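Following up on my earlier thread - several people asked me to post the actual chain instead of describing it. Fair enough. Here it is, all 161 residues.
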Amino acid sequence: MKYLVRDKLFAIGDDYWIEDEDGRHAFLVDGKALRLRDTLELKAPDGRVVITLREKLLSLRDAMTVERDERPLATVRRKRLSLLRNHYRVTMADGTELDVSGRILDREFAVEYDGELLAHISRRWLRVRDTYAVDVVREDADAALLIAVAVCVIRMAERED
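Reply from S.P.:
Thanks for posting it. Predicted structure:
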């Protein structure tokens, strides 16, 4: 299943819809302005908060936390620096890890678990400017989590740039 994300809308306080491949509203990203730390909420179309993304304060390395039902689900951190590719590690609350690698700022990267592709993020499929797709490859994958990871790493990479 592909989800379409509008790129220009990553400013704090901006709200925007993520659509599924049929053009239906799948998630609302609600940017929380006037907060001490960067906070975004991923909401279902009915307004229910599905995932909360927060900048981690007082961290040695830039990090963001992913929460579900006000409990930590994962932490996203930069893994290592490479000239051609960016690498991030997503450490889940249960200790498992997802790897995110590719050209983050170009919106061409993948999310993998133990070498298996979970999602591919790309602009190549689209002609709409300032939009990229999150293609969730596995049917049993948590689409909201994978979209949240994509939003996190792009946000972190843009701050580092």
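The longest helix spans residues 143-160. That should answer part of your original question.
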